Amino acid sequence: xxxxxxxxxxxxxxxxxxxxxxxxxxxxxxxxxxxxxxxxxxxxxxxxxxxxxxxxxxxxxxxxxxxxxxxxxxxxxxxxxxxxxxxxxxxxxxxxxxxxxxxxxxxxxxxxxxxxxxxxxxxxxxxxxxxxxxxxxxxxxxxxxxxxxxxxxxxxxxxxxxxxxxxxxxxxxxxxxxxxxxxxxxxxxxxxxxxxxxxxxxxxxxxxxxxxxxxxxxxxxxxxxxxxxxxxxxxxxxxxxxxxxxxxxxxxxxxxxx
Length: 258
Prior knowledge:
The protein is of the alpha/beta class. The chain has two domains: 19-93, CATH 3.30.1330.30; 103-255, Alpha/beta knot. It has helices spanning 28-37, 52-64, 74-81, 103-109, 125-138, 156-162, 178-183, 221-224, 244-255, and strands at 23-26, 42-47, 69-71, 89-93, 116-120, 142-146, 170-174, 188-192, 208-213, 229-231. The longest helix has 14 residues, at 125-138. Residues 1-18 have low confidence and may be disordered.
């Protein structure tokens, strides 16, 4: 039926973004990093009374964008955050876009001389968050994530563990080993392996690209074949290997000249 002239057709309301399309970023450090780096992604904010002063600058930003924020008790915040370890504050935010790896861009990345990380199927989101935190702490700016089912992507848990680190690194999705072949033209590819590898060695004429593999199965053999060297962190032999996030922290420190 046609709308009458006296009752013009109204513009349909914009659909509200579904909760499943959003991430819950918990903890003051993580929320502060979100508002510092990309405040437009924040959709809502909830916080306990004890963090009222700390949350005030975030609330003002949201108010300017006509977005909601609310002071709540701990039990309510736990329900909203989906965890008891929320740190007293939680932002509901749009996830970051994960661009596809571009070999041409990677050749330009190498110009800054900084190493990158390549995660081949890191499956635990907590490990992803911890690796991102170490990368941000030591100044690594780019992480390539394998395009495979096992690979964890940024989630509520990884944002919480990263303590803001995910806001300071750029993430890219890539089909490996094709991307490894392309990276090998501009980077010195090094595989982190639990045994059989040597020390990292001195810095080469190319920056390092450190490949870290799946927690159970390790690095895909086809990708391992593209690596110029293998590195192993020496230990006492009492444990087979370190957790991948712990290994990443040590190797990242060494990559940055530690």
